[in-house]
Design brief:
ATP binding, binds iron/sulfur cluster, 12 strands, globular, alpha/beta, 11 helices, Rossmann fold, about 325 residues, eight-stranded mixed sheet
């Protein structure tokens, strides 16, 4: 999705971010391993990859929900991992998250009104009648209505619960939202509705999104640019249309070939690239390209040297030894 009104002001800059977890005595799980990207104000950056590729850990470290092992996350120029006290609380107001599972992320004992207003109360934003009015407005904004405020989460469908989760995130008037697989737990018929709602809200409120998903077809509709992660590394990053029309990394090509096409004739003729070999363990990874065991193009250099993410043509970055700079 292209937006002509995007300015070039960077809201989030992630520099060489690492998030490693100790496993047992000597092992290190490198969930996020030297990842860099930036997101402009009003932009949506999609982050895709198979489960276990580090995209959710990356999103949570960007929000400061996990501490960073190394690297920086600059929000409006300030490293959020160095914030303390009042400044840290202020950042939690500006940056919010929508969770994957609308069933698990809402407290079943709280009314929808209390769930939506929890963040407003923490930040002391509204009280009394103004607070009630704000709750009603938020519910309307996400396609619900004020009668829903006194009900409990179990009375709603999956799609409606995700709308409640979105209203909760919006209640503190954030600038940036990490959408952590917000449609993965929903029926296919509902997924497009939630994606369209997020697009509408972005236009109305000027929001900036990091949209995490493993479903590449939906990511295309919402994202201005898309980053592909594999075992803790960003392997390709480009404008959404460019990535889908001209994928360069063998892993991206395989992921895209698995997207079903709605036309049965095209679908029949389409060849799917099957990924070979095992997904290697993210614990104590070997040197070289992490994709080497599954890549049919691998050469000897791929076992020895990890490919850097390089700009091979304007705005198109790839981490593969075989991709030439144009
Ligand atoms: Fe395949 Fe080598 Fe490129 Fe890795 S660097 S994706 S192994 S060709």
């Amino acid at each position: 999705m292209n937006k002509d009104n995007l300015n070039n002001e960077i809201l989030i800059e992630v520099k060489n971010l690492k998030k490693h977890f100790k496993v047992g005595k000597n092992a290190l799980l490198k969930a996020v391993d030297d990842v860099s990207f930036s997101i402009k104000k009003g932009e949506t950056l999609g982050l895709v990859g198979e489960s276990g590729c580090g995209k959710t850990t990356c999103g949570r470290t960007v929000l400061g929900l996990y501490s960073a092992t190394d690297g920086e996350v600059l929000f409006e120029g300030t490293d959020i991992h160095k914030l303390k006290g009042k400044d840290k609380k202020e950042f939690t107001k500006k940056a919010q998250i929508i969770f994957q599972d609308p069933y698990a992320s809402l407290n079943p004992r709280m009314t929808v009104g209390d769930i939506v207003s929890e963040g407003m109360d923490i930040h002391g934003l509204y009280t009394g009648k103004e607070r009630t009015e704000k709750i009603y407005k938020l519910l309307e904004l996400v396609g619900l209505n004020k009668e829903h405020a006194s009900r409990f989460p179990h009375e709603f469908s999956g799609g409606q619960r995700q709308r409640i989760g979105i209203a909760r995130a919006l209640a503190v008037e954030p600038e940036f939202i990490v959408c952590d697989e917000p449609i993965s737990a929903l029926d296919v018929s509902i997924q497009a509705q939630v994606v369209n709602l997020l697009i509408d809200l972005q236009e109305k409120l000027g929001l900036t999104y990091l949209f995490i998903a493993h479903d590449l077809s939906m990511v295309k509709h919402i994202s201005d640019r898309v980053g592909v992660m594999y075992l803790g590394n960003m392997v390709e990053l480009a404008a959404s249309g460019e990535l889908y029309d001209n994928p360069l990394h063998p892993y991206t090509k395989a992921l895209l070939s698995a997207i079903p096409v709605p036309d049965p004739d095209i679908e029949k003729r389409k060849s799917r690239i099957m990924l070979e070999g095992e997904v290697p363990s993210p614990i104590n990874p070997k040197p070289g390209c992490k994709f080497v065991a599954r890549c049919k193009y691998a050469k000897s250099i791929c076992n020895q040297q990890r490919p850097e993410l390089r700009e091979v043509k304007k705005g198109h970055f790839v981490a593969c030894h075989l991709c030439e700079v144009e």
